């Protein structure tokens, strides 16, 4: 369908803008509504009115401004608007209109004002394929031809709206960002834009500047061409990290698949770089489809040969293979698959040249598994010792010693919650133990009380299945510390309440008690405590095997 403004429009606009014609508009109240039609300010003889949130404008403005013909049927009190192959009939005070012969409902009927028929502009505009927007700050209705938009040569999946104000074309900025794979893009200079229909619109040059790629406005063809095809230039690994190298930033859509475990990243509006396409072709000829260079090198050096690996047990790398492919050609989507040897957590970091995927292994359960939880850590120091020391350092020192001792027993598999001064939520500590289906959970803490003479060792459990383990821990621990015996107690501390296996929390002694604090901070005494805890675990393990 051919759309154009009738040359008559300009003549009429000039006419409308001369003082006599504009007199009615200038007498309007402060609630005046401005019109911007086809990029030009238009002042109609009868000012537009707003009714129930809808702007009504004289029929002539619509007709001429939007390049339509209007016929008035006096008998039926109906305006028939024709634009191209579209015909719209609206009747005065009627909420029913006819669009190409079909009944459609209006929320605001046409009305008469100063002997002019006023029509709801947005309804009429949109029925006729015109873009209509409302800029609340300047109280301006903006209406213009609806341009065609192409994104990398195709129609975008979601509508991208354009508004013409004078000679500047404004585009719905967030819609463009989303369509090029940059949803949630933070604009550097939003103040250069306007808010139309509650959306940020920016001049197309600015969107191009900030997003990259090229955005061209072809006025003659009434066409906006967005060319922003990202290129994947490489996928490499470095230990437990994968680097996805790209020309332009895009947000990956990532998810996990199992059997085998793999992390999938879909890169929207992305194509493979030419050399990667070549490489894939070569690999296809060799029978290995979409595998990266590294995988091939590893395979040819026998590094990943399962038989040779089996003869010499060694730590299996987390990443089994890396693959990429042009997953979809329309719209272009590249898929990167990270195949794993075991279940892993992953984290995406966007860098200036792509995405870094950081993998954190989730250990597989292979033996009698003990999760050792050093209480507090990082931003959470725990209790304050009388020497200015922190509970988090005591718990970590003892936990690390317990972990080292437990590792000497081949029947035990030990997973520390933390081995450094980092913070974990209580829920994360519990999740580690529950997800691994650990056999025991031991949480190490130290106590504090305002009165410095208060002291002693106490041990907590919550679930009935933890009581025996708690009694053993307490027996060995109190025996080692020789602090006052505060006993074994049931208490609903989060980490022992929510773990599914036998779980115990020790409060070895009081950091607020000068004598106990001096011992608790001594490495030799910490060794003694660690040995006592390991003895308790071993006794528990032996009695339950
Ligand atoms: Zn604590």
Automatic annotation (TrEMBL):
Pfam families linked to this entry: Amidase_3 (PF01520), AMIN (PF11741), Cu_amine_oxidN1 (PF07833)
RNA-binding recorded as keyword: no
A biological-process GO annotation: peptidoglycan catabolic process
Domain MurNAc-LAA: residue ranges: 430-538
Location of region: Disordered: 282-316
GO molecular function: N-acetylmuramoyl-L-alanine amidase activity
Superkingdom to which the source organism belongs: Bacteria
InterPro entries: AMIN_dom, Cu_amine_oxidase-like_N, Mao_N_sf, MurNAc-LAA_cat, N-acetylmuramoyl_amidase_3
Record's protein name: AMIN domain-containing protein
Organism: Brevibacillus agri
Phylogenetic lineage: Bacteria, Bacillati, Bacillota, Bacilli, Bacillales
């Amino acid at each position: 369908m051919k759309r154009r403004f009738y040359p008559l429009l300009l003549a009429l606009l000039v006419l409308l803008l001369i003082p006599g014609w504009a007199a009615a508009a200038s007498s309007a109240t402060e609630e005046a509504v401005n019109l911007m039609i086809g990029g030009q300010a238009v002042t109609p003889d009868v000012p537009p009115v707003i009714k129930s949130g809808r702007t009504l404008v004289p029929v002539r403005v619509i007709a001429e401004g939007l390049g339509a013909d209007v016929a008035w049927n006096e008998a039926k009190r109906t305006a028939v608007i024709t634009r191209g192959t579209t015909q719209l009939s609206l009747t005065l005070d009627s909420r029913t209109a006819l669009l190409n012969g079909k009944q459609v409902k209006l929320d605001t009927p046409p009305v008469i004002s100063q002997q002019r028929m006023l029509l709801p502009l947005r309804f009429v505009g949109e029925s006729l394929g015109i873009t209509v927007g409302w800029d609340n700050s300047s109280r301006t209705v903006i209406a213009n031809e609806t341009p065609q938009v192409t994104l990398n040569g195709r129609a975008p999946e979601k509508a991208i709206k354009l508004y013409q104000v004078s000679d500047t074309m404004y585009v719905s900025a967030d819609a463009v960002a989303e369509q090029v794979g940059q949803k949630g893009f933070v604009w550097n200079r939003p103040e250069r834009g306007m808010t139309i229909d509650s959306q940020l619109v920016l001049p197309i040059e600015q969107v191009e500047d900030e997003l990259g790629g090229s955005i061209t406005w072809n006025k003659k063809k009434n066409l906006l061409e967005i060319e922003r095809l990202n290129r994947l230039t490489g996928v490499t690994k470095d230990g437990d990290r994968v680097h996805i190298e790209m020309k332009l930033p895009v947000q990956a859509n990532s998810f996990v698949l199992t059997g085998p475990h793999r992390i999938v990243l879909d890169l929207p509006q992305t194509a493979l770089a030419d050399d990667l396409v070549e490489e894939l072709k070569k690999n296809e000829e060799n029978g290995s489809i979409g595998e990266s260079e590294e995988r091939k090198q590893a395979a040819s050096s026998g590094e990943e040969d399962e038989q040779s690996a089996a003869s010499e047990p060694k730590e299996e790398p987390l990443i089994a293979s890396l693959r990429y492919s042009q997953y979809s050609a329309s719209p272009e989507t590249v898929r990167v698959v990270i195949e794993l040897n075991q279940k892993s957590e992953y984290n995406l970091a966007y860098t200036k040249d792509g995405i870094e995927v950081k993998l954190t292994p989730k250990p597989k359960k292979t033996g009698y598994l003990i999760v050792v939880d050093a209480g507090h850590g990082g931003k959470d120091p725990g209790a304050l010792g009388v020497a200015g020391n922190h509970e988090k350092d005591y718990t970590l020192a003892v936990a690390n010693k317990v972990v080292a001792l437990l590792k000497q027993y081949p029947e035990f598999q030990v997973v520390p919650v933390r081995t450094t001064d980092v913070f974990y939520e209580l829920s994360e500590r519990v999740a580690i133990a529950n997800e691994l289906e650990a056999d025991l959970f031991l949480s190490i803490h130290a106590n504090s009380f305002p009165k410095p003479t208060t002291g002693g060792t106490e041990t907590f459990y919550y679930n009935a299945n933890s009581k025996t383990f708690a009694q053993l821990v307490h027996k060995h621990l109190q025996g080692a510390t020789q602090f006052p015996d505060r006993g074994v107690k049931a208490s609903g501390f989060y980490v022992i309440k929510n773990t599914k296996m036998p779980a115990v929390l020790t409060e070895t002694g009081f950091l607020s008690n000068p004598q106990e604090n001096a011992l608790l901070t001594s490495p030799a005494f910490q060794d003694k405590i660690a040995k006592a805890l390991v003895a308790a675990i071993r006794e528990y393990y032996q009695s339950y095997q």
